[in-house]
Write a structure and sequence with these properties.
With 197 residues, the chain is α/β, with parallel strands linked by helices. It contains eight helices and five strands; from the N terminus they run βαβαβαβααβααα. The protein has a single domain (2-196), classed as Rossmann fold (3-Layer(aba) Sandwich), CATH 3.40.50. The protein binds zinc ion.
Amino acid sequence: MSRLLLLSGGLDSACIAAWLRPELCLSINYGQRPATAERRAADAVARQLRIPIAHVTVDASAVGSGLLVSDQETAGRPTEWWPYRNQLLITLAAAWGIGRGTHEVMLGTVAGDGERHADGTPAFLESMAALLRVQEGRLTVSAPAQDLQTEELLLRSQIDDATLAWTHSCHRDNIPCGDCPGCRKRVATLTAAERLR
Ligand SMILES: [Zn+2]
C-alpha cells in the first residue's frame, strides 16, 4: 500500500513531495510542450528528496489545448486550459498504480486553482474520489494542499532551496518563457514566500 504523487516538477507538487514524502512519485509525459523540462525537474526533485520516481508516456496532445500544446488562443478560457487534464492525469496515475500497490493518488492542487479550472475545485476532487472508489482497487485521491496558497504550501513544506531550484513552472516551453501564467505565478509565489519567511 503506497501513496503515489503526481510530480510535474512544478512548485506545488515538489512542495508536497518535500512535505508529505510519498512512497513513490510519477512523472507523466502526456504530450505537453514542456515535458522534457518537467521530467528533468521531477527527476531532480525526487533525487534531492530521495523518493523513488517512475515515468509514464501517453501522448494525449491530440486532445490538448492551450499553451501546453500551442500558442493558439483558447477563446474565453485561461490560456493554459486543457480539457479534462486533471481527470486524465489522475486516471493514468490510478491505472498505472493499481497493479503496483498504490492505494492513494496525490496531486498538487492548491487553493485558487479552482478559480481558473473546474478540475481544481473541491467538487471535482470529491467526484474523482467517488469515481475511483466504485472501481477495482478502491483507490483514493487526495489534494493535501487544496486549502493552501502556493506560498503557504512552500513554507509549510520546508522545501530546501536546492530542491526548489530544480522546479520548472513554464507551460509553454522547456526553457522558461517568463510570460505565461506558470512563469508569472512562479515569480509572484517566490516573492510572496520570501516576504513571509
Ligand atoms: Zn512560461
